[in-house]
Amino acid sequence: MGRYLLQAVKGRTTKESTMSSVSAYYNGKTVLITGATGFMGKVLVEKLLRSSPEVKAVYILVRPKAGQSMQERVANMLKCKVFDRVREDCPNFHEKIKPINAELTQPKLAISAEDEEELLTRVNIVFHCAATVRFDEPLKHALQLNAMGTQRLLELARQMQKLEAFIHISTAYANCVRKCIDEIIYPPPAEPKKLFDLVEWLDESIIQDITPKLLGDWPNTYTYTKALSEYLIQQEKGNLNIAIIRPSIVGASWHEPFPGWIDSFNGTSGIFVAAGKGILRTVIANNEAVADMIPVDVVINLTLAAGWYTAVHRPKNMLVYNCTTGGINPFFWGEMEQYVMSTFKRNPLEQAFRTPNAHLTSNYLINQYWITVSHKAPAILYDLYMRLTGRKPRMMKIINRLHKSMMLLQYFSTQSWDWSSDNMNMLMGQLNTEDRKTEEYPIRIQHHPPCDHLAHFHCKVTDGSKHLVLCGEPLLQVPFLLQGIQHPQALKPSISNQQRGTSR
Ligand SMILES: CCCCCCCCCCCCCCCC(=O)SCCNC(=O)CCNC(=O)[C@H](O)C(C)(C)COP(=O)(O)OP(=O)(O)OC[C@H]1O[C@@H](n2cnc3c(N)ncnc32)[C@H](O)[C@@H]1OP(=O)(O)O
Ligand SMILES: NC(=O)C1=CN([C@@H]2O[C@H](COP(=O)(O)OP(=O)(O)OC[C@H]3O[C@@H](n4cnc5c(N)ncnc54)[C@H](OP(=O)(O)O)[C@@H]3O)[C@@H](O)[C@H]2O)C=CC1
Known about the structure:
This protein is an alpha/beta fold. About 45% of the residues lie in helices and about 10% in strands.
């Protein structure tokens, strides 16, 4: 093992090596992860523990939430199906995970002095995934978490005695006001410190009122605060070795730990579910615009590989990695519609409201027409039926929520962006022969026709905390869209639960 560690540390790429240099690098290291309870964080923790079983410790910053203590949350998280494979490979993997009570919006991240001391003396690599990804987050909270939280974490990282790399997860849409996005930090939408002062003393309602003015061309508080945090990192990184990863729309896993895992309705996932349930019939989108989706495991591979490269090669300048697919393997929303619809026709979901039949349109009036005819009218009738049969009406509520999310997403479904990917290509070149041979860290999808990889990552949605199972197979439980909807013409599942072979 020592030989591989040495090789990795020296950045050698010899043919004799029999282990991925990325995996070898993390063996023996102490890692700190924020956002580990989230969609991407879980996949990061899993891959790290599975591919580098000798990793020394993985500290995760976790807050108590929804009446659950930090310990309860972590115990629940580790039961998640995404950890099945690592559980099999290394049954004691949980012993490596060291949860730390933290709240990123609080001064000093609300970490106790004792825990802070432990982190400062031990951590070698930081992965910062925590963020609010809600598009409608009030500006004050989005700033406190995405921008100030990042600043606070940087402050902590600067004091870490053994830190080798700090990896920040941003988004490819942080600079979505530009059409061509290079792997550089652009000027921020506003001076972060001035904004922090402003939100400190201004009343919440006044901040809400002036938010559209402050956002300017930015479509939401999420992308705005992610742009600010990139700039803050550039300004305040000091001597730290930092890299920024910018994924586009992150979808279900391609291969790892198994195809199709997802546990979030963010990005396109919720829309696909609504379409598959037959509830969503019309979507504002441009057929010719690129649907830039990337599987979560590919993003995590790139993140870990970038961590290795940053720590071992210590590039002079901070590197930004655009983690996108459109430039390499473009797939368009029009193709997506056909692909998603044909998949649902072949593999109908359980208890669908109607037969799936969603269409994209870029015409606002046509969309409004179909919203009235195909969304609202059936919802009103269905809710009437529910009332008459003594049950609680809920379809209109679902439809309204769907419309709200479609409104927030349409900015991204009607435009295309060009992201350069030179750093991603460079990183691929840096991976040693063993990395390429074993494909342990595939960081881009280039040799598969688009539909091939979509077959995995769009149509397989499995388990997770939200009990989603949509593997080109029936959907089991989807909170809120499904519960209570027992339409007489509900589509029958194409295969049984036993055949499905999932844990739920
Ligand atoms: C056929 C072809 C299609 C083509 C289709 C094109 C679409 C084109 C998309 C472009 C996509 C760009 C993506 C940008 C790239 C990033 O950077 S992605 C990361 C960015 N963040 C996001 O995507 C988040 C967007 N979502 C939001 O901001 C908020 O969820 C919304 C939309 C404002 C809704 O807020 P809300 O009404 O308060 O609802 P929310 O609290 O989110 O959810 C309440 C409950 O409903 C559940 N739920 C939410 N949505 C759903 C759903 N759809 N189904 C079932 N349950 C749901 C939640 O899980 C939650 O359940 P519990 O946790 O309570 O059990
Ligand atoms: N999903 C996507 O499509 C994309 C995501 N990204 C970026 O990737 C990163 C991860 O996203 P994703 O996993 O999807 O997001 P999730 O919403 O699934 O996870 C967010 C994580 O941040 C944690 N968190 C939120 N608020 C706080 C807080 N106040 N203190 C401590 N921790 C907090 C959450 O913890 P808790 O469980 O306690 O809520 C959770 O672990 C984000 O930085 C996001 O911007 C970029 C592009 C696309």
